[in-house]
Amino acid sequence: MSMVTKFVLWSLLLLALVGITGSRAIWNNQNSDSEDFTYWQGQYKDVAESLATDSAVKQATRDSLIEVKQVTVGQFTVTQQDGTSQQRVDRCQSCHIGLLNPQMTAENIIRTVDGKTVTTEEVPKYLEEHPKTLRIIKTIGAHPGISVEGEGARDLGVIHGEKFTYGLATEKSLTAADFTDYGLQKTNLKQHPFPTFGCTTCHYGSGRELIEKNAHGDPERWLSPMLAAKYMEAACAQCHAQFDKTKLSVAYLPSMTTIARGEKLFRDKACYGCHKIEGLSKGNIGPELTYEGRTAVPETIEHQLWDPRYKTASCSMPYFFAYREHNTDDPDRIKDIVDARADELKKTGGQANIENPEIRESLERHGYVPNGKAQEDVDALVTFIASQTGNNYASSASSRMTEIAAYNGAQPEKVDVTVASGKKLFEESGCYACHAVGNPDHKGKSMDDPAYKGGVAGPELTWEGSRHSTQWLVEHYENPQAFVPSSIMPIFPFSDTQRKALSLYDQSLRPTGTKTVDPVVDMPSTQMKSLGAQTPDVATMTR
Ligand code: HEC
Ligand code: HEC
Ligand code: HEC
Ligand code: HEC
Ligand code: HEC
């Protein structure tokens, strides 16, 4: 025997051994209550065979091998938590075997498995009452967005609508709104063929794993979890986020409305003032979030947003989405309601219905009531933050460097120094996230003033013009911490003219007919400055 033949024979033998022990290991690893891929492929064979109308297809389905199905995705490597890359190998199709078979609709699977004929309209209700069948459909059903060629515009897919939590769309959908919703949500799979994209590019999860709970992921065991459907645009953004040099912001596909909303909120809620994201924001009070989507999972990001103090009791990040009910820092006052809005939420049932018990518990411990209207904003922000992986398949590393350089090198805009441009800047810069402003001429409680709006993390600015001179205000914008050492107000990257315009607007906030503040009164004299004083009157700066 030649060396080559010997080698080949030996490797074949070895391979066979690996095959046997390998699959043993897989089998032994199963929990008795969870079905493995061989089970799902068996289920699929039964259903697909009975649905096949062509005898050749029937035979081929019957004869198909039960085996691990795997795609190796050459183009899109996985970036690990530590930044290193790994080849993407996805075995999800070992269980999700019917994804490309257009016959695997909910209706067909129900008919085959349960022997019941249900119409499209009846699918959601039926599945609500038959969780076992739902589980089978989720596993071996056709993938949303698969179009059936040659059968007109028949389009299959999972829809998640308001009243329609689960179902497969065939020719039509339940309501026009659901149909539109689906049109927006579905992903054209012709543009993303499985052999090129695998599954984990869009779903995350741990592609190599063959056990359901491992494949779907578990951060506690270092297995990357799948993205919940509501956060999926974070994955799409890896390929569909284009830096726009003229606006120094990111453009997404028109259908990616959640993440676009998240990016807007990142500005409106002043997150950008405290957090740096390379190429997008320069904040430096909180931790950098450039790689947050790689090092944190959506659940912890969500926790941070509802309850910023859940990890660190002294965290200065404001509660943007919850109101303070009582003062937990002072045990004597624990019964006092400190924010009327929290009381209102509790009374009217406007409190958010948070599923995660850990989030509920920590909010309660800190005395905060989550705002029910904030859920969509929180989801959008989580999606946006989770998309920050520092990784973009659509742009090369060098063009990313160019984008970052363009952002870092950009000078803040020059504006007209007028009240109007200051007001515009105030509205666009996220100031309302921390400051409330009302009508200075309003008599009575601020809450009853229809013009009153804004947050409470900073002082109310309705009478700011009666409190400080423009000179004080400009210097405060340059460095709030020089005036109030522990201030959480960020240093915003404004130009001189922007700071002046803002100060003019602030000055306009005072009751009609009252005078502005003379700098002599509220700026320290040169002599006081030389003694280290920043301001003569710290007491007026209440929180
Ligand atoms: C061992 C079999 C198995 C493997 C491997 C597997 N899954 Fe699943 N998957 C299931 C089952 C079973 C369900 C239905 C879960 C249920 O009961 O709702 C499911 C559900 C899902 C769902 C729907 C989740 C939901 O709650 O609506 C998605 C998405 C999904 N899998 C994606 C993946 C991806 C991506 C991979 C590869 C990383 C993968 N699966 C690997 C068995 C598997
Ligand atoms: C181009 C992105 C993309 C790729 C690639 C992709 N999916 Fe999906 N998948 C989606 C979207 C979007 C949905 C619908 C999400 C939603 O609303 O539930 C979905 C839904 C699903 C569902 C049903 C989820 C449910 O809620 O019931 C399963 C199961 C699934 N995908 C598995 C896979 C598997 C397995 C692969 C790899 C063979 C894969 N997907 C590849 C984007 C993708
Ligand atoms: C790994 C990269 C990647 C991911 C992840 C990805 N796509 Fe794509 N997508 C592509 C590529 C490549 C194309 C085809 C080239 C093109 O037309 O831009 C494409 C095309 C599209 C198109 C058609 C674009 C057009 O202009 O016609 C849509 C819509 C789309 N993707 C939506 C999504 C959605 C929604 C998701 C998330 C569920 C997603 N994609 C995830 C790479 C990706
Ligand atoms: C006043 C400054 C400030 C503002 C405004 C702010 N944050 Fe934070 N943020 C912080 C600080 C400080 C921490 C560190 C908390 C800790 O260590 O527990 C933090 C932590 C975080 C974290 C967790 C980071 C990590 O890896 O531990 C996330 C995510 C986050 N912020 C997102 C946001 C978002 C989104 C917004 C806007 C809605 C926002 N932040 C607004 C100061 C701020
Ligand atoms: C993260 C919360 C936060 C954001 C965002 C924020 N501020 Fe502040 N701001 C504060 C706090 C807290 C103070 C009180 C401590 C201090 O003076 O620095 C303050 C103080 C001020 C004062 C002085 C009030 C006084 O009379 O003492 C002005 C004026 C002001 N902010 C304007 C703005 C403007 C304009 C923006 C938007 C560009 C803004 N702030 C954004 C938290 C914030």
Report what the structure shows.
The N terminus and C terminus are likely disordered. The strands form six sheets. The protein has a two-stranded antiparallel sheet with strand order 1-2. A two-stranded antiparallel sheet has the order 3-4. It folds into three domains: 133 residues, no CATH class; 178 residues, Cytochrome Bc1 Complex, Chain D, domain 2; 130 residues, Cytochrome Bc1 Complex, Chain D, domain 2 (Orthogonal Bundle), CATH 1.10.760. The longest helix is centred in the N-terminal third of the chain and has 26 residues. It is mainly α. A hairpin with a 3-residue loop joins strand 7 and strand 8. It is built from 26 helices and twelve strands. The structure holds heme C (HEC) (5 copies). One heme C binds next to helix 8 and helix 9.
Q: In the CATH classification, which architecture of the largest domain applies?
A: Orthogonal Bundle
Return the CATH topology of the largest domain: Cytochrome Bc1 Complex, Chain D, domain 2
CATH class type of the largest domain: Mainly Alpha
Give me the Rg, rounded.
29 Å
Largest sheet: 2 strands, antiparallel
User: Which range best describes the helical content: under 10%, 10-25%, 25-40%, 40-55%, 55-70% or over 70%?
Assistant: 40-55%
Rounded mean pLDDT score:
84
What is the number of E strands? 12
How many angstroms does the end-to-end distance come to? 89 Å
Q: Strand share of the residues?
A: 5-15%
Strand order of the largest sheet: 1-2
Bound chemical compounds: heme C
Tally of distinct domains:
3
Query: How many DSSP H or I helices?
Result: 26
Low-confidence spans? 1-32, 148-174, 536-543
Determine the structural class based on helices, strands and strand pairing: mainly alpha
Q: Given the C-alpha coordinates, what overall shape results?
A: elongated
